[in-house]
């Protein structure tokens, strides 16, 4: 066991949300970190900068409401001392009830902190294996490099699962025609609102859907077509949703409910919402418009929306591989590898899904690696908490099919048969009680 006053460094592979959160948890406890990050030398196909903790798609970390699953998880992680969430609140941009950030300012601050920390040795290299010696946290994310994936596949002897995701385009704010749009948040018609809403008439909507379906898509290589069957439903490309019926988008990302166009005083037939993407409010992303159309086609089709006729696209949508491990066989609830307790896995690679969830497992892995270094007992948050429920989900051995999961109230057992809102309130109350007790015992 390393000495408490001169601890050996913990190796962290991957400087994303989970890896940087884990780094923080270690260095704040005086434990040195050797952090491997491969970008920009080796790219991932989705990351665009050389910054740590880059948000690859939406700039939203999900709901900020205390009675929502993601809001509850945030509450727990902040109480636990999450650096990523504290930084997210520091660089928050208006987004209704969601926590959205200026992605550039957010990632810059984290990069500056981590790379500048005296206890961090930053190694700008791709790791193609996990060191046998010392404590290691693997947080290489959904776009883990092929060399590392190969190593993991060989080491664990499991067939890796993977599914596909898609990211949404971003446009310049100045290029949005506000004569054809209005500001409002859903269900709050009285307030000015943070979102820019782009209404469509029935005719405009039907033309949009027809052109969307006709538009050319990027062809996936044959070996990826098989994995495509495992599309993660929460992040389906809009052309895929539209293919299920002409009305499908009006019940999905183009739903008009809760929105009144102040010029007509009526609910539009369909609405595309745009959400602020940076602090300067110079960029907006097309909410829910993940797509796999070829780039020229994306611009052509989205410009059929009246407010976007002159839109300047700064980023276009794309589809990407999204890898995760079969954690129920591999991990303990402390996020250690079952037969290699000096290895921890964190982030999306564990089978959690989402920025906040990845941050949460990074926090837990970093916290436990610190405790292991300091000779303390490792912890797993109680199943009644949101973080604990997520960890139970990814380590539960009885899954028929293990697919990635974000924070949600379905992770909890039936609480005293309470219906609807009462059940949710009971879960939240119990989660808060359990978390307070867990934390007090620490
Ligand atoms: C394209 C895409 C869009 C997504 N959109 C959203 C979204 O809108 N909202 C949401 O909540 N979640 C989204 N996710 C899911 C997920 O929440 C994010 O990917 C999140 O960033 C995962 O955190 P992480 O720390 O596990 O991985 P990442 O943040 O991806 O960090 C992993 C890091 O490891 C590095 N790396 C990989 N392999 C190696 C190696 N061998 N050696 C060294 N470094 C390596 C990578 O360069 C990267 O910096 C998306 C995922 C993808 C891929």
Q: State the share of residues found in helices, binned by percent.
A: 25-40%
Distance between the termini: 21 Å
As a whole number of angstroms, the C-alpha radius of gyration is 22 Å
What low-confidence regions span 5 or more consecutive residues with pLDDT below 50?
A: none
Largest sheet: 6 strands, mixed
Total tally of structural domains: 2
Number of helices: 13
CATH superfamily of the largest domain: FAD/NAD(P)-binding domain
- The neighbouring-strand order within the major sheet is 6-2-1-7-17-16
Small-molecule components bound:
flavin-adenine dinucleotide
User: CATH top level of the largest domain?
Assistant: Alpha Beta
Total number of beta strands = 17
Structural class: alpha+beta
CATH topology of the largest domain: FAD/NAD(P)-binding domain
Whole-number mean pLDDT: 90
Global geometry:
globular
| Assembly of the depicted chains | single chain
SSE string, helix = H, strand = E?
EHEEHHEEHEEHEEEEHHHEEHEEHEEHHH
Main location: cytoplasm
GO biological process, one term: tRNA wobble uridine modification
Keywords: Cytoplasm, FAD, Flavoprotein, Methyltransferase, NAD, NADP, Transferase, tRNA processing
Domain MnmG N-terminal: 10-376
What would your notes on this structure say?
With 442 residues, the chain is an alpha+beta fold. It has 2 domains: 10-160 and 325-441, 3-Layer(bba) Sandwich (FAD/NAD(P)-binding domain); 166-320, Elongation Factor Tu (Ef-tu), domain 3 (Beta Barrel), CATH 2.40.30. Helix content is 32%, strand content 16%. It is built from 13 helices and 17 strands. The strands form 4 sheets. The chain has a 6-stranded mixed beta sheet, covered by helices on one side. Strands 10-11-12-13-9-14 form a 6-stranded antiparallel beta sheet. A 3-stranded antiparallel beta sheet has the order 3-5-4. Helix 2 (69-79) packs parallel to helix 11 (355-373). It is globular. Residues 13-19, 36-39, 44, 46-47, 56-58, 126-127, 139-145, 148, 165, 167, 320, 322, 347-349, 354-355, 358 line the site of flavin-adenine dinucleotide. The site of flavin-adenine dinucleotide (FAD) has 37 residues, from helix 1, strand 8, strand 15 and helix 11.
